[in-house]
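User: Teach me something about this protein's shape.
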Amino acid sequence: MFASRNIIKGAFYASKRNFKVGVVGASGGIGQPLSLLLKLDPRITELSLYDVVRTPGVGADISHICTPAKVSSFVGNEQIESALTGCNVVVIPAGVPRKPGMTRDDLFNTNASIVQGIAETCAKVCPSAMFLIISNPVNSTVPIFAETLKKHNVYDKKKLFGVTTLDVVRSNTFVAEHQGMDVDTLKVPVIGGHAGTTILPLLSQVKGAKFTQEDIEKLTHRIQFGGDEVVQAKDGAGSATLSMAYAGQIFTSRLLEAMSGASDVVECAFVENNLTAAPFFATKVHLGPNGAEVVIPFTNLSEFEKAGVEKLVPDLVAQAKKGIDFANK
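Assistant: First, the predicted structure itself:
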């Protein structure tokens, strides 16, 4: 009954494998629905849920879902090593959410320390895992995670991802609504980063779409600041939790497909590469058993998109430096 891709896209792939997946921040606004969705993936045989509070209740609730994955829950700093030991993939939505008026950079001082601590533990107990960073600001937390792994000599750039799938999800949704297209046929490439104007949807590459310049500018702005739309609508009660959980599940399950042997898995992600002056840049990535097997260069940009890249790269450089400096202080 869960086979419909309208319920959970990409959840079932013919080649079934056994993976242990850890969710750090599992009792939070993103972590709970994300853990629920991951419980539906038949490739996951063990789902390890960790948070500093309330994880046993979340784990008990999710464990009643009739799918094969065994659920284990861990709570408190003294149990994080047990939670992550042996994980093949670690998904990290931990941290504080945005509130009205806050930017992702406003979250830096709190979430930077949280992410660094998680990275320290991962380096110790699951250094060969794939690490999927959702904690904002992604443009800085991914470099923090990388620098921390480097200190322990366990960094593999192919295995560290900033999850920018929500930008693709929003792009697909907004373009489909605007153009009257079938959203299931859309996959808008989104490059750059994962904050404000560093997010750049490549609308010129949407086949069959007819945009005016005004359309492009308005849609691009809406995609870039879609998170603000949700924060304001929730009126202080949270940020984009459900859509982010959905996007996080999509990327995790697509990565598990690739780790299981699928040869045609391509997703956008924020990874280390040399496509620009920024050390990390979101672009299409060919996923495989070892992670980011091939970073795919972005090509055929419109003049509007070229200008967008020129503008966003200095911001990405500065935001990466902020994370690197934090990790090395």
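Now, about its shape. The radius of gyration is 19 Å. The chain has two domains: 19-162, 165-328. If you'd like, I can walk through any region in more detail.
User: That's plenty for now, thanks!
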